[in-house]
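Q: Can someone sanity-check these two? First one:
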Amino acid sequence: MKSLKLNHQKTQIALEYQQAIADLMDLLIRKNYSINTQKSYNHMFSLFLKNVYPIPIHKITDIIIKKYHRTLITKHQKSISFQNQSINTIKFYFEKVLKKPILSIDLERPRKEKKLPSVLTPVQVHNLIKATSNVKHKTILSLIYSAGLLISECINLRIKDIDSSAMRIWIRGGKGKKDRITLLSPKVLEELRNYYVIYKPKEWLFEGPNNQKYSSSSIRSIFHKAKKKAAINIPATVHTLRHSFATHLLENGTNLRYIQKLLGHNSSRTTEIYTHVANDMLTNIKSPIDYFQ
């Protein structure tokens, strides 16, 4: 009888957990969080509940939450980014879904490592794009680099977002869910026109099977194949093209404020990181002693 009662309790708790995840997802959708954020929160919250099972949600204390995050570091060696995402998820559930603070908890976030972004040289970017023979693939990489796009911004572009009369690209609901405009290179415009004649997209600028949006995974695959063919051995991802765009603009004398606007950064402090990797700017700076007569 005791065993049956225990099994019943565990079943009830499992159902409670399922409802908690459903409530979390419902609020994320109603608050218009991105699909990627929804997937991340679902994953993080499910991992947390799996770890604390079979504790009922109303009995989860700050000590339990802190212990869980300690195991992420000591046992699972999870990254700082992973730990912060987990903290954000759990805080969101308790504070936004259940409408109560996480007891007396003051979660200490791990200190972020101050890493400089990986950046390709202009020659490496040229070689990367040149190594891509497929017209669609080459156009995608050219556009991402030339306009400083995120992958999500690239795949969400519609044909009408390319404004050739004003030589600009409209980014709808881009970084921070804000609209912005960015550069349309005359060279890339020619590539886009050539691509359009060959592929004839219907709605999305880049389309996959059945005229659906092109996938992020396909673009990552394109990038890594081109990187390998171009014999680029430094760590780099598609996002590196965006970093390279910003760095190369800075090296060519573009005002940091304009670069901030093109990238969609809220704070100039975010954009200032590119001053640390702009090689030409560093090499062109003279020491004060060199001005002495």
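And here is the second, same format, sequence then tokens:
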Amino acid sequence: MFSALLVEQGDTGQSVALTSVDEARLPEGTVTLEVAYSTLNYKDALAITGTSPVLRKYPMVPGIDLAGTVTASTHPEWSPGDHAVLNGWGVGESHWGGLAQRARVDGDWLVPLPVAFTARQAMAIGTAGYTAALCVEALLAHGVRPDQGEVLVTGATGGVGSVAIALLAARGFTVAAATGKTAEAEYLHGLGAAGVVDRAELAARGKALQKERWAGVVDAAGSHTLANACAQTRYGGAVAACGLAQGMDFPGTVAPFILRGVTLIGIDSVMAARQRRTAAWARLAEDLKPGALESITREVGLAESIAAAQELMAGTVRGRIVVDVNR
């Protein structure tokens, strides 16, 4: 038996509770793990609170991230005692996820835990930080350089934004952090942001083309924020879009793309190939300092994750929430 956060669907709707589960109920997979830590992402909060229908089947253990130790494997690349990390692949949506003490998954979904990080630190990064690394990798691959001007990060106090700021600052970029939480300026400066932009400047409908400000952008907001970020990006610049915190719509025009040669890069972390995953984790291991991780991390126990998910949906969470599944 093991403890798990279990979401079930009944006649009166969805319910979620900390439950004792028989290991025989674990789904099919080639690798079984003893989970050490998981984390709460926006998608996890949607699943736990039932705010959006992200779950594909019931009952479901949410948690799109996990870090743990292999206890059994029929996969050729994994052996008992190996330390592994999982991000995405539909885990926590259509396949039981990381908010539990045990997990059974496809071994192809796993990557080795980088030696630079503990399991807890890897989950302080989680999908949010791994997505931030994918965004930074995309900007660098496009040729965005520190000497070309400022880089904008939207949703700056969130998990993606916080890690993106730290990574970009470590590479020598001048980072402008956009947030609606202006009282968090000290926190953002501590991560490496050179300046803070009020989210309101970007959140409303703007002109098709605006003053050129950004050499590159990491956007976790979507909607008007993304449209305005594109309209303010300098000639030849790039925008990495990875989220929809403001909305799924994109109320922009083609003007930035056909008149300034701006490139809009879509970032998907769920189904990314292993090569891209390992490159992102290598970037994190090289550029993300342990002190920066600690400053953006709060730890909760498995039972506390339900309340923490509600906080995340209310927009009152700063940085990352790590879940110790064994307390």
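A (reply): Looked at the second one. The chain has two domains: 2-113+296-324, 126-266. Residues 2-113+296-324 form a domain with the Quinone Oxidoreductase; Chain A, domain 1 fold (CATH 3.90.180.10).
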